[in-house]
Design goal:
With 134 residues, the protein is an alpha+beta fold. It contains 2 helices and 8 strands. The termini are far apart.
């Protein structure tokens, strides 16, 4: 009788251990599926207009100097992938503009303390968006 009781306890312990292993395996699988890898595709800067040099044409290079001691960085701009915006601080209105209009807004003396946000595609070093708040 003692042997039969011992056998029954062993069988129950084995079932309990198998159940725990199954639950652990399911949870590990869920954790693996839910652990997605994020791939960074864009970067950005928030700069003063004085830290940016725009190209002279719609296709060219925008030069950015993130700080006084930082190396100047050059990013491509082109009409098919680069958009320019002017945002109104008070109303929040955001308007798409040409590179020329954006350039004039950056040179406007009343915008010296404005912030310009620049987004670029990491793989291609292409500016996708530049926006000034005034």
């Amino acid at each position: 009788m003692f042997a039969a009781k011992h056998e029954a306890e062993n069988a129950m312990n084995i079932r309990k251990t198998l159940s725990q292993l199954l639950v652990s395996a399911v949870l590990a699988g869920v954790a693996l599926v839910s652990h997605a890898t994020l791939i960074e595709t864009h970067g950005s800067y928030e700069l003063k207009p004085s830290q940016i040099t725009l190209p002279r044409s719609d296709s060219g290079k925008m030069t950015i100097r993130a700080c006084d001691d930082c190396k100047a960085l050059r990013y491509r701009v082109n009409p098919s992938s680069t958009q320019y915006f002017i945002s109104n601080k008070q109303t929040g209105e955001r308007k798409a503009v040409s590179r020329d209009s954006f350039s004039r807004a950056m040179l406007d003396s009343s915008n010296r303390d404005a912030l310009v946000t620049v987004f670029y595609h990491i793989d291609t070093d292409t500016i996708t968006e530049a926006a000034i708040r005034q």
